[in-house]
Amino acid sequence: MAICQGKSTRSPSGARRVANRGKRKSELGRESAETRLGEKTLRKIRTRGGNEKHRLAGDRKINVIDTEGKAHTVEIYNVIENRANPNYVRRNIITKGAIVETEIGNAKVTSRPGQDGVINGVIVD
Q: How many domains does the chain have?
């Protein structure tokens, strides 16, 4: 079944909207990338205009900016918290905003791994 990112059939008050047209190809969505903690794996996705997007399916490394502004590439041990979905913590799925345990302390993910193809973050106190 296709994922549609078009207008909802319900209005903000809950009333049913009558559609004046059908779905469009430009409104199609895709399954989420669900970047896992594991071996580095990239998937290429063809996007609009024939361009490519690199989806990160799995990775163990994160580029972290410490409190002094210096960048380090360190290993991720575990996912501690993920506000996107509490079940992502158990499954070690990394999204933007997730808190991960690293060699140099806890870090908050600032990039979108499923869109950017890399995991970036900042140290959290």
A: 1
